[in-house]
Amino acid sequence: MFNSLLSGTTTPNSGRASPPASEMPIDNDHVAVARPAPRRRRIVVAMTGATGAMLGIKVLIALRRLNVETHLVMSKWAEATIKYETDYHPSNVRALADYVHNINDMAAPVSSGSFRADGMIVVPCSMKTLAAIHSGFCDDLISRTADVMLKERRRLVLVARETPLSEIHLRNMLEVTRAGAVIFPPVPAFYIKAGSIEDLIDQSVGRMLDLFDLDTGDFERWNGWEK
Questions:
Q1: Rounded distance between C-alpha atoms, residue 156 and residue 170, angstroms
Q2: Model confidence at 6: pLDDT above 70
């Protein structure tokens, strides 16, 4: 089981019992027919070369724990940042995803609107990628998939990592927001009185996944002033 988790592979649950006939829908000839199994939720995770690689890694870990199917796309600079900022190797990060797509594979399933995805998160999102999404310049799989999310009116979250922000950055953020995306700067919440950087990361990741109606349960939510 542990090896299958590391490899990013999935195995069918062949031991699950079929529902009793009394719970199956009945067709016009009064013959019991089995309901199709519900599809797992499916989210595309893209990682660019902006600082904050651990945010993307933590998102993948949380989605795996929540049994959400993940499709990962990483840029070459994301791989470089992973090696520089973390103790992970890009191969370890790929193993956290159910499926991995090459950033240059413009024929990957996620490049089409007919591929049923529940949303996409770009974490971290560089200003280059933000600009490409804003302009609709789909020269790689990350910007193309983000373009698909916008045209299909699906959730697109951009975890923008830059400071300070120029007018160009702000204009790009405003325009993609008007197009339907959500800009999520990973701003630390000091009210949680974090004991470590990991606590701050967990809070940010939890709030990111709130936008997909997913609850990580990894951080303390605000409940008013504590006495």
A1: 17
A2: no
Structure tokens at 47: 């990682």
- Residue 50 assigned to a binding site: yes
Q: Is 155 annotated as a binding residue?
A: no
The reply to whether 127 sits in an annotated binding site is: yes
Angle between helices 53-65 and 197-210 (to 10 degrees): 60
Q: Can you tell me the mean pLDDT for 32-59? A: 91
Is residue 207 marked as binding?
A: yes
What count of residues does the chain have?
A: 227
Locate 187 and state its tokens.
């701003």
The answer to whether residue 196 is domain-embedded is yes
Q: Which range of residues forms the domain containing residue 101?
A: 42-211
Is 193 annotated as contributing to ligand binding?
A: no
Q: How many domains does the chain have?
A: 1
Q: Does residue 221 lie in a domain region?
A: no
